[in-house]
Design brief:
Elements (H helix, E strand, L loop, with lengths): L1 E7 L2 E8 L4 H48 L17 H49 L6 H31 L8 E3 L1 H10 L5 E6 L5 E3 L1 H18 L3 E9 L2 E8 L6 H4 L11 H7 L5 H11 L4 E5 L5 E8 L8
Parallel strand pairs: 4-6
Antiparallel strand pairs: 1-2, 3-5, 6-7, 7-9, 8-9
Helix pairs in contact: 2-3, 3-8, 4-5, 5-8
């Protein structure tokens, strides 16, 4: 309804009211509510689709960067992230590429330094070794002097092994560690390695004595590092097993030592990593033996795995690809 006052002489003389039914107004409001109820969900769906399209277009360069990053070479020597355009993503890619270039250059410089230092150290090491060996073979050397020279001789041997290990790792990092395919007789090779180890009894079990083609130096080095490591920590015995699975040589070395805690298993094979720092230092380890085994296995299409539980010993399994063609049993 609508009300209107009529005033005169300073007072309200009358009030006029006009009324109208509200039914049509309520109907219009109801129609408006129904219309909104139908159009708002459609508008929200359209807005969501448009937003997804806009966000997808905006994030497409970032997805390209992520895909390219997953295919980068581990040593950062290959391709780089795409840096097309002048937007923020392209600028970010160029920044990352510059950082990758500096990192790759640092890696290359470190590899050259390791190789050059190793080669330069071989000459003085050989000279010290020859002189220490000469002094040990002299007669009449005082006991205190012989003890000192013996210590020098042993330290030189350790230094020579360290230099050889570093050179081998440098060759692997440089990508020049290629397999050599020569006939390998596994049983005499392992017997030779076992005879060089002192300590617990070493039992050899060979399921197949076939001759195969492989890298005898790599196989010998893998066996030497695994067997010597197992013998160092075994309580009473070490079991060495060999089997051929197609073109895969499997060498397993198990000891009955105190085992390795689970948190250390994942890091075995890292360079300079030692489970027990004090024990490894006393026994003369550098933390490179298992790293070398891991790299040699990888270079020959295989892998290095460990199984261990505290108190029940450790088993290391090294696999390497070999060739069986043109060889007789």
């Amino acid at each position: 309804s609508l009300s209107k006052r009529i005033e005169g002489h300073g007072r309200v003389l009358a009030v006029v009211q006009a009324s109208r039914p509200l039914g049509p107004v309520r109907q219009q409001v109801a129609d408006l509510n129904r219309g909104l109820a139908m159009t708002i969900p459609i508008a929200l769906v359209i807005a969501a689709l448009c937003g997804a399209a806009l966000i997808g277009g905006a994030m497409r360069p970032l997805r390209k960067l992520a895909d390219a990053a997953q295919h980068l070479d581990p040593d950062l020597s290959g391709s780089r992230l795409p840096a097309e355009g002048s937007d923020e993503f392209a600028e970010l890619a160029r920044t990352f590429n510059a950082a990758f270039d500096r990192t790759a250059a640092a890696f290359a410089q470190l590899e050259r330094f390791t190789g050059d230092a190793g080669h330069e150290l071989r000459t003085p090491i050989a000279a010290i070794k020859s002189n220490s060996s000469y002094l040990l073979h002299l007669g009449g050397l005082p006991p205190e002097s012989r003890e000192a020279v013996t210590s020098i001789d042993r330290s030189v041997d350790r230094m020579a092994r360290l230099v050889d290990d570093l050179l081998l790792l440098a060759r692997h990092d440089a990508g020049v560690l290629e397999p050599v395919w020569e006939p390998v007789q596994i049983e005499p090779l392992l017997q030779e390695v076992i005879e060089r180890n002192e300590g617990p009894e070493i039992e050899l079990c060979i399921e197949s004595g076939r001759t195969f083609r492989g890298d005898p130096d790599a196989v010998r080095r893998v066996a030497t590092n695994l067997i010597s490591n197992a013998a160092r920590y075994a309580r009473s015995e070490v079991q060495v097993g060999v089997r051929l699975e197609g073109d895969l040589l499997c060498l397993s070395v198990a000891d009955d030592g105190k085992g390795i805690a689970p948190e250390h298993l994942a890091r075995l094979g890292e360079r300079f990593y030692r489970v027990d720092e004090a024990r490894a230092r006393d026994s003369g380890g550098f933390g490179l033996g298992l790293a070398i085994v891991k790299e040699l296995c990888a270079a020959h299409g295989g892998a290095l795995q460990f199984e261990s539980r505290p108190g029940s010993g450790t088993t290391a399994v090294a696999t390497m690809r070999v060739r069986m063609e043109d060889l007789k049993p």
